[in-house]
Amino acid sequence: MTTVPDVDLTYNIRSFGAVGDGVSLDTPAIQQAIDACAKNGGGTVIVPAGKFVTGSIFLRSNISLYLDVGAELLGSENITDYPVIKSRWEGQTQDTYASLIGGDQLSNISVLGRGTVNGRGEVWWKAYAEGLLDYPRPRLISFSNSNNILIDGITATNSPSWTINPVHCENVTIHAITVINPADSPNTDGINPDSCRLVRISDCYVSVGDDCITIKSGTEHESPEWYAPCRDIAITNCTLERGHGGVVIGSEMSGGVKNVVISNCIFIGTDRGIRIKSRRGRGGVIEDIRISNLIMDGVLCPFTMNLYYHVGARGNHVVSDKNARSVDDGTPRIRRVSFNHITAREVKHAAGFLYGLAEMPLEEISFSNVSISISEDADAGYPEMADDIPHMSKAGFFIRNAHHVRLENVEVAGQIGDAFDIADCTDIKIIK
Predict the structure, then answer these.
(1) How many domains does the chain fold into?
(2) For the purposes of burial, counting CB atoms within 10 Å of the CB of 214, is it exposed (0-12), middle (13-18) or buried (19 or more)?
(3) Which of 210, 211, 271, 421 does the annotation list as catalytic?
(4) What is the domain extent for residue 284?
């Protein structure tokens, strides 16, 4: 829970010359306050009520950035206020524009309070659409190679790209934040831990233009020495609205993903609910995922597992080939995933879409106590992004290339055709 810091131990950015009129560039004053606080051993930097325009600012170890009620950090609309740094973006280390709030190799840092971080991403979305950017867009808040991180209470909105993105971090707590980006804003994922360990995401509301919460671990294009799993992740008590996926794993998963618990969440109008995606060449193992106590309302497809994900590789025959290929280090694997006590209403395209590789079936997948009802006025579309998959509307569970699947007390209502369309699978049990 966010607490108000002792005023005697704080550094108010106005004392360093910040104006807060929504026009003046306050980056130098904010950075001076952070650096002065760090020089004196750490403490809390206060952003008081006001509208403070800023480019990239960099936290230091042992710093809390506290946004008071009525405080708003406004991202500068001048691209030159964001220096170019080396950072992982979409699974590969490369030159990117620095985040609005960021830092590398830090310890004991926090961004908290009841204020707002507004990235004013419109200028970036427009430049991206017109192909005018030399580097990937800034994220709103992103720390790398850091530990003991807290992001609590704030509202994060209008991010230029991904909103909250810890990379190679340990012991990360993201609590009671609100993330709102326009539905049509490109790649504005909500919360994306990437190759992190010990992450807790709780009591958040996320409504964005891409995936709401996504767990990632790099791609085959990353240097292997940077591979690291994203593991020991707990996501609970969140409400996730709109977006391409509610909680997503992949498609960047070359370092692997393991030990993930997703519980007590509500999904409203997301394209997919729980979404796991990868493809040949990416490698990595997704394993030991436990998903329980969810309610979904108006999603296109509640559950998808797709090892033919084609974004960035559309038309690539190696990726799209439905025949078995040789297993190698680039073969992705999904195993030991369970879904329990889930209700999905007003589903559109399909009750579930599970498609493993012919050479590497999905393994040990279970659904129990799941109730799904299909919308009477559902439209047609694709339940997942892959080449050569069927157009669906009001379909039941579609399962291909899976081994050891258990469906116990799984109810599907309102579908057209069979509730379970299963082929090229082994050891399947449907228990009523």
Answers:
(1) 1
(2) buried
(3) 210
(4) 211-432
